[in-house]
Amino acid sequence: MSLLAQTRISVLDLSPIRAGHPIAQSYADSLALARHVDELGYTRYWLAEHHNIPGVASSATAILIGHIAGGTRRIRVGSGGIMLPNHAPLIVAEQFGTLESLYPGRIDLGLGRAPGTDGLTARALRRDLTGRPEDFPALLMELRGFLAKPESSSPRRVRAIPGEGLEVPIWLLGSSDFSARLAGKLGLPFAFAGQFAPRYMLEALAIYRRAFEPSETLQAPYAMIGTNVIAAETDEEADYLSTSAKQHVLNLIRNDMQPLAPPVDDMDALWSVHEARAVEDFLGASIIGGRETVRKGLDRLIGLTGANEVMINAAIYDQDLRRRSFSIVSELKAEAAQAA
């Protein structure tokens, strides 16, 4: 049986700001995509917290999650992720308690320990400028305490209302071994950011599985991998569409972030040989191609990683073609299940 047939598929969205379009259009684009994949049967729709990036509109992540959840029917909506060191755990508990109260059983809380931005912006975000990524386990424990069911023998003086007792599902996100090890130790699901850190993916997943200890949350490891998938009717069309994502990463490498640009015919006119290698390394786990290329690529990636779920990012400028890309993946999954 095709591995794709057995594997859940989900969506990662940064609500990209497209060149020539206002930010409000980004939110309309995200909602249209969320409604589309909701109808297709995707499992989750996660939004990522980033700051001070001209091409990303998902900085106020909890607000955008509410917008997407309110405009969809079934799909789980969550954060991929909330960068916990940027926030007081009580505020996160209240925000996600509110979301869970509004959309019960549909909210996920994915957490990361990086700031999701540059150092200067991180200083502007932080409530405590002495905070370090190493403080993440303590912040996580505090947050989990606010979301846990209260104990009558030891009433809390500070409570997350709403939030207390709702036990919103928590995921740990990472692009290295730190969160993988912590997720395993705590018996939590783990999501690896393969969409931008592919070279560390297998090592992090192995560490997570070795470190895993069963918990009330999970009896066995549950690993999700993020990856970029750009699917089209032909390999040539997909390669052309992927030049928007490649320009985005090229700008990141140059520290010159811009809105998502339309595709171009020739990337060689834009980058040096060294830059081309850096972009390809960044996008190393990406699957770009026509139907058969994407089907084989997803089966190969799932087989290599043993992932329980794949979360797909697709930085495609044309929104009709972006939605079509997600349709193709859904069709490939349905075809694989039918053939089983």
From TrEMBL:
Q: Which InterPro entries match?
A: Bact_Lucif_Oxidored, CmoO-like, Luciferase-like_dom, Luciferase-like_sf
Recorded GO molecular functions are:
oxidoreductase activity, acting on paired donors, with incorporation or reduction of molecular oxygen
| Domain Luciferase-like residue range list | 9-300
Give one Pfam family. Answer: Bac_luciferase
| Entry-linked Gene3D superfamilies | Luciferase-like domain
Task: Return the SUPFAM superfamilies for the record.
Answer: Bacterial luciferase-like (SSF51679)
Cellular component per GO? cytosol
Tell me which family the UniProt entry assigns to this protein.
To bacterial alkanal monooxygenase alpha and beta chains.
Q: Which NCBIfam families match?
A: oxido_grp_1
Q: What is this protein called?
A: Luciferase-like monooxygenase
**Record organism:** Tistrella mobilis (strain KA081020-065)
Higher taxonomy: Bacteria, Pseudomonadati, Pseudomonadota, Alphaproteobacteria, Geminicoccales
